[in-house]
Amino acid sequence: MRDVTLPMLWLPIILSAVAVMIGSTVIWMALKYENAEWKPIPGEDALRDAVRKLNLATPGQYIFPHMIGQSPDLLAKKMEEGPVGILLVKKAGKFSMGAALFQSFIYYLIVGVFVAYVTSHALPAETQYLRVFQIAGSSAFMAYGLALIPEAIWFGRTWKSVIKGLFSALILGCLTAGTFGWLWPR
User: Fold this and answer.
1) Residue 129 and residue 184 in contact, taking contact as beta carbons nearer than 8 Å
2) Model-level pTM?
3) What ranges do the domains of the chain cover?
4) Rounded CA gap, 148 and 141, in Å?
């Protein structure tokens, strides 16, 4: 049995990124089961006006109440009173679907490279499809899904949203695994 090198896996890296791009599009545009977790804000225009008046200097991530530099008693009072939250602010302007899709594809390629790295170090050439599927799929699932869990623990993402995201990660992981299993060097 011969070793598998990263250059030998260029085709599964690229084709898995294409498969995941298609799978992700189907999940978000056709199945839409994750979309329901993004709820509208009652009085959205009033919130937008309030945030605009804050004149946030740069897009970024903001937390309230902010925990640094406050006395523990004041912080506890603010936490009790609510609201408590995280605000992600993007740059104003027209949304570019093309740029977002391109960046997503680059991310899927990077995941594919890491899946190839792990799988090539774990398995030799001529490994059977299901074994490749197991290693590649586990790696891809971890890349696509496990980072959601700390978002629920620390930042208030709902567990329902995390579970739906993990289900999506499982689908994307299986697409990656299937591609690597199919194209594994024989």
Assistant:
1) yes
2) 0.91
3) 6-39+95-183
4) 11
